[in-house]
């Protein structure tokens, strides 16, 4: 086993972190523990003998036919051992806590894959002055990784800013040194030559030999690796990213012009700014100029634009001077088109034909209209009139010649329409009237040389329907006359159908309904009615008393329509009587008697019993009962008050005679012995809870049996039901 020569204070500090010095196997003097996981990996650990001097840890180790990758330095693996240097494998990803604590190593190189360093891993390493990190990413640190005597220690990294921002490295920010600092900006402008890069070696104790691969000269962002070889044997790949901007290339666009409607001329330009004796042959495609001007573009000035695409890898084209394409007006001839209009109309909007239009234009797009002249007016007679034009301004054309046209005035159309009219069946036709459409210049029917007439087939005896009114015979000097028929509508005459009023008693069926008519013409009568009316009344046999309208509808006749006057069905109240065939003259005390009186209306019977010491009346689920508890006589009345459909019935009275009987009446089953003494109920032999109910079914007592005899005191007399076990008994208390 290892022998540690440490003081009591150090032992106390390590006691909590050292769990076991066990190991799985040993190869070439290095002890290993197999890590958990699917892949065969191991951690370097401590063993039977302490490590000394220089330790070189391999990337892999083979034991019993299995090759393991070395990925971790275990907790306390080298702590307090007399080692002076160590080579870490490139496969290492984790250094455990106290792994190299209190060792004598002076320098160490962390491989690229290392991503974690445990607590106090290099604590109290007083001679450790140089720590070299080869990775682009920096391992996460736990607490106190490099504590005590680290004031002159340096950490050499590729990117100080990035490392300082990684977990807990900010503790050592002042000790972090970047391998190389590039002196100049990493941005250049294309010159045709590879850019010159200057740098400073920050490892002042060692000489540096920097070599790079394939520095680019073309524009773009490039990354190369500088291979830094130090005189101490350290080799580090240092990435360097730089940007070569495209060289500016100025374009001067030349002026151009054309006539409206012509194709665009060729567009020309001048370039300046090429370097290294280069010219347009380096372009991927010819320089493109564009102008938003076409054959149909209006007269004006149009900027010639530079398409600033990426024409060349190393040049950025920009517009130095703008050029313009100027479009001039085209010459054309104007001719006034011949026009025709009707007598009395205003002159039409004159149109024109053009010779010399371009681009399929149909008009020259006037900005100032032509001035048109003619002697014809709205009141001018039919004839032919000259029309001339002058002036006018167009945006894209110059008017070089005008040619005149003709205006022809012709007869106006006139429509004479027979005015439609309406009459009732049996009436004579009224004189026909006419509607005129098309008069001009305030002309009226008096302008006609002959007035129109009209004819129709309808007579006073014609059936209801529609008949044509045909106009004819009008003449006029200045109008071309056409006709339009009107319509004579013969409407049906109206009959008043009056429904007769009737009445009945509630419960009877409705009587037969009747109707009378008034309004026949042409000496006609009810035989003209094709379909008799139907009657509708919402009242049925058992509809409540009241008044209900009788509505007639649906009658049909060839020449008549119907107006209906409703009748009224009046329903009156019905009479009723009480039937009661029950003998109540021999009733025993303690008896409940169902009362059986009925009303012929089917309405419920109510009962009235005066003050007495013999019986009471109660109702249960719609049925009335007598509870007879005393000896004596009393009269009971049956009554039915009627409702909205029935008159009240004549009341019936019967004598109730109650004689002495047993005080105890078994209702169901064989009950335990139950007796009464005034207002005390005695229950002998009950074995279950005793419940006492009044005649309404309300529980008034709930008593547990006490010994063989249970006494139940009641507050007032009456009839009660006593239940115990599965038995029920009725008792009467006086």
Q: Which features characterize this protein?
A:
single chain; 734 residues; mainly beta; 8-stranded mixed beta sheet; 5-stranded antiparallel beta sheet; 69 strands; 2% helix; 48% strand
Which stretches are low in confidence, meaning pLDDT under 50 for 5 or more residues running? 1-20, 662-670
Structural Rg: 64 Å
**What is the first-to-last residue Cα distance?**
111 Å
Give me the secondary-structure category. mainly beta
Strand content: over 45%
Q: Estimate the helix proportion, in percent.
A: under 10%
Gist of the model:
The chain is an all-beta fold and 734 residues long.
Explained architecture:
Mean pLDDT is 89; it is low at 1-20 and 662-670. 22% of the residues are buried. The protein is 2% helix and 48% strand. Strands 1, 2, 3, 5, 6, 8, 10 and 12 form an 8-stranded mixed beta sheet that branches. Strands 62-69-68-65-66 form a 5-stranded antiparallel beta sheet, with no helix packed on it. It has 734 residues and is mostly beta strands. The chain is flat.
What is this structure's SSE topology?
Blueprint: H1 8-15, E1 25-27, E2 30-34, E3 41-45, E4 52-56, E5 60-63, E6 66-73, E7 82-87, E8 94-95, E9 107-110, E10 116-117, E11 130-133, E12 140-141, E13 154-157, H2 160-164, E14 176-178, E15 180-182, E16 187-189, E17 199-201, E18 208-212, E19 220-230, E20 235-245, E21 247-253, E22 256-259, E23 269-272, E24 289-291, E25 300-306, E26 315-321, E27 323-328, E28 330-336, E29 339-342, E30 352-355, E31 366-374, E32 383-394, E33 397-403, E34 405-410, E35 412-418, E36 421-424, E37 434-437, E38 448-450, E39 453-455, E40 465-472, E41 475-476, E42 479-484, E43 486-491, E44 493-499, E45 502-505, E46 515-518, E47 529-531, E48 534-536, E49 546-553, E50 556-557, E51 560-565, E52 567-572, E53 578-579, E54 587-588, E55 592-594, E56 598-599, E57 606-609, E58 615-620, E59 623-628, E60 632-639, E61 652-659, E62 664-668, E63 673-677, E64 680-684, E65 690-693, E66 699-703, E67 709-713, E68 718-724, E69 727-733
């Amino acid at each position: 086993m290892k022998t540690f020569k440490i003081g009591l204070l150090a032992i106390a500090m390590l006691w909590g972190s050292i769990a076991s010095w066990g190991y799985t196997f040993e190869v070439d003097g290095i002890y290993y523990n197999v890590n958990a996981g699917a892949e065969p990996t191991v951690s370097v650990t401590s063993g039977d003998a302490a490590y000394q001097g220089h330790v070189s840890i391999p990337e892999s180790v083979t034991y019993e036919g299995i090759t393991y990758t070395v990925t971790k330095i275990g907790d306390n693996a080298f702590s307090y051992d007399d080692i002076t240097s160590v080579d870490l494998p490139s496969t290492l990803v984790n250094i455990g806590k106290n792994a190299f604590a209190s060792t004598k190593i002076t320098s160490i190189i962390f491989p690229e894959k290392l991503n974690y360093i445990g607590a106090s891993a290099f604590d109290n390493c007083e001679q450790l002055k140089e720590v070299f990190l080869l990775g682009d990413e920096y391992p996460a640190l736990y607490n106190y990784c490099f504590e005590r005597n680290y004031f002159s220690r340096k950490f050499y990294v590729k990117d100080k800013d990035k490392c300082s921002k990684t977990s807990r490295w900010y503790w050592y920010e002042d000790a972090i040194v970047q391998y190389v600092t590039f002196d100049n900006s990493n941005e250049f402008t294309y010159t045709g030559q590879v850019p010159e890069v200057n740098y400073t070696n920050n490892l002042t104790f060692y000489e540096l030999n920097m070599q790079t691969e394939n520095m680019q000269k073309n524009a773009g962002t490039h990354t190369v690796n500088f291979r830094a070889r130090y005189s101490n044997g350290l080799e580090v790949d240092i990435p360097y990213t730089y940007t070569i901007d495209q060289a500016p290339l100025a374009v001067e666009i030349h002026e151009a012009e054309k006539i409206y409607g012509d194709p665009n001329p060729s567009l020309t330009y001048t370039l300046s700014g090429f370097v290294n004796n280069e010219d347009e042959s380096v372009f991927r495609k010819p320089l493109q100029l564009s102008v938003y001007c076409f054959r149909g573009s209006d007269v004006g000035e149009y900027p010639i634009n530079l398409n600033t695409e990426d024409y060349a890898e190393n040049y950025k084209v920009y517009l130095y001077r703008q050029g313009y394409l100027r479009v001039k007006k085209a010459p054309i001839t104007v001719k006034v088109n011949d026009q025709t209009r009707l007598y009395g109309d205003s002159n039409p909007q004159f149109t024109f034909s053009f010779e010399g239009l371009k681009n399929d234009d149909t008009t020259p797009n006037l900005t100032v209209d032509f001035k048109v002249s003619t002697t014809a007016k709205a009141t001018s007679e039919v004839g032919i009139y000259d029309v001339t034009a002058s002036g006018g301004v167009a945006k894209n054309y110059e008017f070089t010649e005008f040619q005149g046209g003709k205006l022809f005035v012709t007869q106006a159309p006139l429509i004479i329409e027979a005015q439609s009219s309406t009459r009732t069946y049996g009436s004579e036709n009224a004189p026909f009237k006419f509607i005129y459409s098309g008069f001009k210049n305030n002309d009226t029917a008096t302008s006609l040389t002959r007035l129109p007439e009209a004819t129709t087939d309808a007579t006073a005896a014609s059936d209801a329907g529609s008949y044509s009114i045909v106009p004819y015979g009008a003449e006029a000097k200045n109008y071309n006359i056409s006709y339009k028929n009107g319509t004579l509508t013969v409407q049906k005459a109206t009959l008043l159908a009056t429904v007769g009023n009737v009445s009945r008693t509630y419960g009877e069926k409705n009587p037969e309904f009747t109707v009378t008519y008034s309004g026949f013409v042409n000496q006609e009568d009810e035989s003209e009615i094709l379909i008799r009316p139907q009657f509708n009344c919402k009242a049925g046999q058992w509809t409540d008393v009241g008044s209900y309208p009788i509505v007639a509808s649906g009658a049909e006749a060839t020449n008549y329509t119907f107006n209906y006057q409703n009748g009224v069905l009046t329903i009156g109240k019905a009479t009723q009587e009480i039937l009661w065939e029950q003998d109540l003259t021999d009733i025993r005390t303690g008896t409940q008697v169902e009362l059986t009186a009925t009303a012929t209306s089917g309405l419920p019977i109510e009962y009235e019993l005066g003050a007495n010491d013999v019986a009471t009346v109660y109702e249960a689920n719609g049925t009335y009962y007598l509870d007879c508890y005393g000896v004596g006589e009393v009269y009971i009345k049956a009554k039915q008050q009627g409702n909205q459909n029935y008159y009240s019935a004549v009341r019936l009275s019967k004598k109730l005679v109650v004689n002495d009987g047993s005080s105890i009446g078994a209702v169901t089953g064989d009950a335990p012995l139950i007796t009464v003494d005034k207002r005390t109920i005695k229950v002998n032999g009950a074995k279950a809870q005793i419940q006492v109910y009044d005649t309404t079914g309300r529980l008034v007592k709930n008593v547990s049996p006490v010994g063989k005899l249970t006494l139940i005191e009641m507050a007032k007399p009456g009839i009660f039901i006593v239940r115990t076990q599965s038995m029920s008994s009725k008792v009467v208390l006086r």
